[in-house]
Specification:
Length: 377
Amino acid sequence: MSASAGALSAVGPAPARIDSAQSGTAIIPEHLELDVAGAERGLAMGAWYPVNHIPGVYVSAIRPVAVPESILSSFRDRVATLDGVETNAVDYLVAFDLAQLELGFSLGTDHPRLDWSGRESPSMHDEQLAGPDGIGTSSPLARTGIVSPALTAHTVATFAGGFKREHSAFRYGDLARQNHGSHYGFLEQGAVFSKLQPGLATVYILEDGSVGMKTWERQDDAILPRLRHARQNGVPLIERMEVGPGIPGPLVGQWGAGNWSGSADEKLRTLRSGLCLQTAGMQRFLIYGYFSTATPSAMARVFQAYGCEYAMHLDMNALEHTYLALYSRQAGRLVVQHLIEGMREVDRKGGNQLAPRFLGFPDDRDFFYLLRKTTIQ
């Protein structure tokens, strides 16, 4: 048996399914910098709490130990057993109401590159080509690495994107043996910088602003003229079913074939971030997940608990790579809230002024941003 968490979840995203033995258990947040309403006594696991002064944004906290056994025992042919460390690690999720907010994507000034990853096998590497798509740079197109100044006043959030090119191709498994090693694709403002490859987890934004996530198929190339932005990053953590919540992707428990990468010392359990879509009644939410120490299997179990329809990995290993910041305007000044305190170190300071990454100065890494829907991109 499992119990839904917290009365606060009556508004906003659907709460996580919580094991009955953990129902009502609160997490006292450590290093959480967000100003969360109603969290004076801690965050009830799986419940959602509004972020003060930023309508349409919610925060939740969970430990995988609270995921019901009915979920943990499902799809064991796809998901590895969680160890004691990741089971008790605190994970934070931030939800964005897509009725109020619009998603955008920007390439960094340098990453991801367009040349060869170096992970592809020699049989997939063509020495006659500068990169898997035939080009090695984005020139003459400019890559700004910053939210357009015309949009900064309406920007609600930014968060770091996916892997660099050097980690964005497959060395093992079926995907390593096709399409030059299946380098992760991406496009910005309708310009295809790197082809979207079949079999890869993809988040995309259509020209009307609607957001989708799916495992790309070759027939999906038919919608390329309608795409505003897209980013691929590996294979799915949760894949879509025809109705209802999704199920773990088939390669979640396979380190090599899933191209999940690891820490500097090649440990699979490390700091990771991910992204999912959830439908709650008539509302749709984009959910960012921060996993303090997790394998892809732990990420999948948490996203299952939150009823995600589809989920994919983002980046990993450092606060810089899992960066998320929220913005509000109070008394005429910009107020910056970071998901985790240490993320502030990536920003720049000038006197009493803080210039946040992605918003105040260009960055070499790609990122996503969310705007109030009163703006036009």
